[in-house]
Amino acid sequence: MIKRVDQSNVRERLRRRGTFQWFHALTVVLSIGLTLFAWDYSRKQLQSKIQIQFDREAERIVGLVTERMQKYEEALLAASAFLEVDEREITRDRWRHYVDQIEIRERYPGINGLGVVLTVPRQNRDEFIAKQQLGHPDFRIYPEHDQPMLWPITQVVPERPNAAALGLDMAHETNRREAAEKARDSGLSQVTGPIVLVQDTQRTPGFLFFTPFYDIDFSTEMSLASETVRRARFEGLVYAPFLVRNLMRGTMERQKRSLGLRIIDGGDVLFDEHVESQSGFDPEPLLKKELTVPMYGRLWTFDLWSDLSFRKNASSSQPQTILWAGLLIDSLLIGMFLSISRASRKALKMADEMTQDLQSVSLATQANRIGIWDFDPITGKLEWDDAMFDLYGCSRDDFSGAYDAWQNCVHPDDREASNQAVQRALQGERSLDILFRVIHPDGTVRYLGGQGVVFRNDDGEAIRMLGANTDLTEQMKMLDERKQHLREIARANVELKRSNDELAQFAYVASHDLQAPLRRIVSLSQLLKDELGESLSEDAILFMSQIESSALSMRDLILDLLSYSQIESEKRTLVRCDVKALIDSAIENLSELIAECDGVVNCDDVPDINADPHQLIQLFQNLIGNSLKYRGDKPPLVRVSGVARPDATEYIVADNGIGIAPEHRKRVFGVFKRLHAESTYHGNGIGLAICKRIVDRLGGSIWIADSELGGTAFHISVPNVDFDSQEIR
Start and end of every CHASE domain (predicted)? Predict the structure, then answer.
């Protein structure tokens, strides 16, 4: 009786606490206040973030323009230094060669060209024009003006788009003349005010970038510290013309910016994106900013506006979301407090009715399509939950609840194995973990996994088996698909190997078949010479010699291609090689060529490596032959050396030949890659490709560096691998 009264008191207290009381109201008020605070704080944070983003983007744009101008100044300074150091006359070919070497189009996007401006006293005008017409026949100085000094453009590259600028006198116009004189007197790079370039047919804003160069005597400690000295030593200007639209296109892409830009120089607009026709233009921008930056003697004002893409990226519903979410939570709190009385009584009643069995079943069935079963091995009774019937595709009315009924649901091919697995688990030999198939009434086959735990009495006898079944059909399908893919990959690899073998055999046979008609062509040409004798004209003799030469070149090309393909296709056995002896063999093979060019080939004592002897001879023979072929005016000198390192062995083939420019050193290892015309140096461009392929097959690397002898040095690095008689392909 007491116990019943205590339970009633507990229930009554729970009911009262579920009513809406003063502390509930306080909680709601505090929650609303916290919501408003979070909304205001989020709104201010968003505004600050947008401002920071705008400022960062604005500074980035200005920084990009400034950085690009600094890069252009570096190009002008380099050209100025080149003209100061090289005292030769500035000819058309020399200036074009220099500009081509620095690759202004690739390295300096947005630049219109690179040119030279010289100063000419008016009394020397005719003599200067006559001298310039030797390189530029149409050269003239224009337009006319009354200044005592002339500042004509004498060179500009590229010439075609800048043809109208050649001969243009910088002194004829105030912006150009003042910037040029300021550069001369200060010794610093200068930018002109806004001008229209003569080569611009669209008449859009542009400017010129000047850097002075002087007559410097490097044999003395001459200083250009004073303006007087700079004027006395002044020779001219290196200049670059710019269209501002091209400068901006080369500096930054519009689609990668979220700010519109206007650039103003002294009240003149150089560049303007604040127009309705511009993509992304926002007539009422969120933010604006002006930045004034010194720009090589000028002041450029950057007027920046946020555009529509910035507005889109800056928009955020976070503050509103916080506000509405907070108000929704407050409403839910009120509703929760109002309904807590009813909910508490219902919860208590449901809690009284819950049992341990329901808890275990609910936990087990939370997984996807998992059925629970309970088997009594003594009586043979088998109980299923609802999920089990879904897995087996049958109804509760069709299932008798006996062990045999389960066996009848299992695929006939899997029944014996499944039954044995259950019996072994009951006997304690192993736990139950099986995979089997079931056939649904519609004929579909499903894969099920079964796991179970056996419960035993004190005597160790099985009294209960509790377990679960899981649908594994999709996993099995994925496994089957993976196996099928693996089989297809294996079959493709076999086909690829067979195809490679057939291609290698075809290359070998084709090369031999192609040599026969070439030999026939050479033989017939020689027979025609012998038969016709002196009756042949000089042109006929020349043509027949060209036929023989072309046929022999074709034969050499076929042999080199065959050699190149065999490196990949033939099996090679790696053995320990006496590299010094193999190099001596390569030198002996080249003895006639060495004697012909009066060359000298020396080989130091070099370390041994594991390699294919035949290919190693071919490697060094090609490299030494390359050094002998590309020789300079002096007799060729070639030195082969080597050194063993802890992880690799390195060989060097150095010569005193004509060398290879750094920008071409990687390209020469490609097939048919030649740096010289056939008429200058005979060859087909395969030799170095063969060398690289041989080194690649050894897992090594080959590269080119400057030689101590004055020419080229080929470096070969082969990793030190401890193996015997290993085959490679």
Answer: 141-303
Identify which of 480, 25, 59 has the alpha carbon closest to the alpha carbon of residue 257: 59
Phi, psi of 2 (to 5 degrees): -65, -40
Q: Which pLDDT does position 355 carry in this prediction?
A: 45
Distance between CA atoms of residues 481 and 387, nearest Å: 28
Cβ atoms 636, 655 nearer than 8 A: yes
CA-to-CA distance for 216 and 230, rounded, in angstroms?
10
Contact predicate 700/716, CB 8 Å:
yes
Please, which residues bridge with residue 641 across strands?
652
Render pLDDT for 95-138 as a digit per residue (tens, 0 to 9): 999 999 988 888 888 788 999 999 999 999 999 999 999 989 99
Q: How far apart are CA 154 and CA 94, in angstroms?
A: 13
Q: Which residues contact 446 (CB under 8 A, 6 or more apart)?
A: 391, 393, 437, 438, 440, 471, 473
Whole-angstrom distance, CA of residue 452 vs CA of residue 426: 10
Helix, strand, or coil (residue 158) = coil
For the chain, helix, strand, coil in percent to 5 are 50, 20, 25
Is residue 243 within 8 Å of 223, Cβ to Cβ?
no
**661-694 confidence digits (pLDDT tens):** 787 777 777 655 455 444 445 555 677 778 888 8
* Alpha helix segments (H runs only) across 270-317: 308-314
Work out the average pLDDT over 10-36: 71
**What dihedral angle (degrees, nearest 10) is formed by the CA atoms of 414, 415, 421, 427?**
-170
Q: CB–CB of 620/582 below 8 Å? A: yes
CA distance 609 to 231: 67
CB of 292 closer than 8 Å to CB of 245 = no
Does position 560 have pLDDT exceeding 60, yes or no?
no
Range from 16-30, 241-255, 334-348, 614-628 that averages highest in pLDDT: 614-628
Residue whose structure tokens are 């790696």: 574
To the nearest 10°, report the CA torsion of 126, 131, 132, 134.
130
Could you tell me which of 424, 345, 434, 236 has the C-alpha nearest to residue 14? 345
Q: What percent of the chain shows pLDDT beyond 90? A: 21
CA distances to 148, 513, 568, 618 from 508, in Å: 78, 9, 12, 18
Are the CB atoms for 650 and 716 separated by under 8 Å?
yes
Pairing of strands 462-471, 600-603: unpaired
CA distances to 180, 295, 405 from 195, rounded to whole Å, are: 14, 16, 98
What one-letter code names the amino acid at 134? L
Lay out the sheet containing 432-439: strands in order across.
Answer: 381-384, 370-376, 462-471, 445-456, 432-439
Inter-residue contact 179 to 194 (CB < 8 Å)? no
Amino acid at 556: D
Residue 342 CA to residue 543 CA, distance in Å, equals: 113
Q: Where are the beta strands (DSSP E) in 472-593?
A: 572-577
- How confident is the model over 386-411, as a mean pLDDT? 82
pLDDT of the residue at 729: 40
Using DSSP bridges, classify how beta strands 701-706 and 637-644 pair: parallel, antiparallel or unpaired. Answer: unpaired
pLDDT at 73: 92
